[in-house]
Amino acid sequence: MRKRQMQVHQEAAASVLQARHKMGNTPTNASNACCFCWCCCCSCSCPTSTPLKTTFKETKLSLQKRILHSSISPKPTVDEARSWAVSFEKLMKSAAGRSCFRQFLRTEFSEENMMFWLACEDLKKETNKTVVEEKVRQIYEDFISILSPKEVSLDSRVREVINRNMLEPTSCTFDDAQQQIYTLMQRDSYPRYINSPAYTDLLNSLEEPPPEP
């Protein structure tokens, strides 16, 4: 399985280099470059990767700030918190719900699932083609690459879809992957959260009357 993932990753890297050459953004000596230069996930010092690293670093910082900001939300009302138990959709539509659920995922060492989902939502809002391409590559590096410590769990079919989509990056490049991670959280982590002490304690804290002055 790991060997197959490495093969898919290498195919994706090759596909992106081909796409950049097609668009005229890759020098003719790009074929001699490290195959991972396009995503800056190695310390390669070849000339084709150096101009891109600054741009990717700026995009990464911007993406991290957006994801961090999206995890900060006001305290929910008791009715809002109770509605999260009705459906996963209600929880995900609530900023406070996403924040609380993300904290729970962190305790299960699967916070990357929410981070990836949020990054995909942020990508969908982008309209500038150049920025879209930069964000697509950053998301790939952070959550799809097998070299990333935050790699999300995707099956081979979805990885191959991403591989093809990387030829022409758009705001919909990771739609299939985002849906698969959404379903994974819904079926796996969400039921445990609703039945967890963390959710019970939250409801109890919201139901407690404020202390008398």
Summarize model confidence as the mean pLDDT.
79
- Helix/strand order, N-terminal first: HHHHHHHHHH
Gyration radius, in Å = 20 Å
Strand content: under 5%
Largest sheet composition: none
Task: Find the count of extended strands (DSSP E, 2+ residues).
Answer: 0
Count of DSSP-assigned helices: 10
Tell me roughly what share of residues is in helical segments.
Answer: 55-70%
Separation of termini?
Answer: 62 Å
Structural class: mainly alpha
Low-confidence stretches: 19-52
Shape: elongated
Structure description:
This protein has 213 residues and is mostly helical. The protein has helices at 2-22, 50-70, 78-83, 88-93, 95-107, 111-124, 129-144, 156-165, 175-194, 197-207.
Layout of helices and strands:
Elements: H1 2-22, H2 50-70, H3 78-83, H4 88-93, H5 95-107, H6 111-124, H7 129-144, H8 156-165, H9 175-194, H10 197-207
What's this model, at a glance?
By secondary structure, this protein is mostly helical. The chain is built from ten helices and no strands.
Q: What distinguishing features does this structure have?
A:
213 residues; mainly alpha; 65% helix
